[in-house]
Write a structure and sequence with these properties.
The longest helix has 18 residues, at 327-344. By secondary structure, this protein is an alpha/beta fold. Helix 4 runs parallel beside helix 11 (327-344). It is globular. The protein starts with a helix and ends with a strand. The chain has two domains: 3-343, Glycosidases (TIM Barrel); 353-471, Jelly Rolls (Sandwich). The protein is built from eleven helices and 16 strands. The protein binds beta-L-fucopyranose. Beta-L-fucopyranose binds at residues 40, 166, 168, 237-238, 276, 283. The site of beta-L-fucopyranose (FUL) has 7 residues, from loops.
Amino acid sequence: MEKTIKEAARVKPSDRQLAWHEMEFYGFIHFTVNTFTNREWGLGNEDPALFDPSELNADQWVEVCKSAGMKGLILTCKHHDGFCLWPSRYTEHSVKNSPWREGKGDLVKEVADACRSAGIRFGIYLSPWDLHEPTYGDSITYNSFFMNQLRELLTDYGDIFCVWFDGACGEGPNGKRQVYDWESYYLLIRVLQPGAVISVCGPDVRWCGNEAGHTRNSEWSVVPAALQDNEKIQEKSQQEDDGEFAKRYDSQDDDLGSREVIRGADKLVWYPAEVNTSIRPGWFYHPEEDDQVKPLDELLEVYVRSVGGNANFLLNLPPDKRGLIHENDARRMSELGQTIMDTYRDNLCAEAVAVASAQMDDRHDANNILDGNLDTYWCPPEGVEQAEIEIDLQEQKTFDRIVLMEQIRVGQRIESFSLEWKDGDVWKPLDQGTVIGYKRICRFGKVTARYIKLTITASRWYPTLTSFQVFSSK
Ligand code: FUL
């Protein structure tokens, strides 16, 4: 086996990335003066007096997120218009000059507290691009202003799981040119919140590259380090508030991690994907979109293709002028959560037994994939790139979903696999796929069978598997 492939197989996630993988599905909240001006991008000169939600209730946001099975929430603490949802000491452009809670409110705190008391994690979005702040474009001065704001958010609101840096900038050719001091921002985050991942314009979590919910068939977490180049990320990000960007994607980007791609790379890194899209056409609330909440089928499809395709799913929910998530969105979220729960609650492998064509040693027995423990796993000896595992469910069961998980703590290895079921003495195809990674959800028409076979047809160095689950959708 070539050196590059073995090297690729050994690239591992950091602890903060591992914890992030386990988050799987979480919410995005876009809320600011735009909610009251009915815009997507603000102008930066909005009067703070506009910000006046009448019934704001962060607990309701968190309940809606939890009803869909989300494990966290990321809040737009400051969007491109510069209005701060917390009373920052470094600007007057914030909630402190709004009528909301008589200028005494702190929305970042309310949301962070609501998350904490409901047992989900909290993350922050802080737009690097700032249309209001006069020092924006005066690079050194703005960098210190930005770091001050970042420090406030990283110190005053408890544990933060993610800092989300948007690549968007619509300054245009004659606009201000700010040179961001990314390295200093990252250092500050590492010191103050070492467990937080830095996403999009950051080294830990890769933006999937579109806002339309498009997902790749083969999503690799091990990719060339060149993809961490913030300038390239910014070039691909939104440059204009044209109402179209959120619907586009570039199919040229579909292969980021195959053998062909990584062979040409200088350095490989663990840089897993996050799929971000909105439940409505816009990121912010617009009353005219009340009847354009995405249908359940569409959301389920993105869920299965992202969470079940080795990517995390960040779904945006825009609160309305009341400061509540609209009834239509809330209803859709609980339908989504119910369907996910109904499908993936009862694992039909409770009594199952697994036998593999090869195993490295006793500690890596095939039955480790059935024990519900993500620490234990199966693997064949080093250098064995293909293997088979036969699962005996002990009796006939009817099912239409199989969920596979690699032991990503040691790397991402599997390149292709197939699944079969036994009909009498004959093995018949069930499904086939490419990468597995953290999680792969396989869907197929319902079958009734006792025996299932997983064949790993190609992998890097040697494959691993930590979980094999079988379900029946309702
Ligand atoms: C984009 C922004 O321009 C949108 O307004 C939104 O915040 C989205 C998540 O990222 O780049």
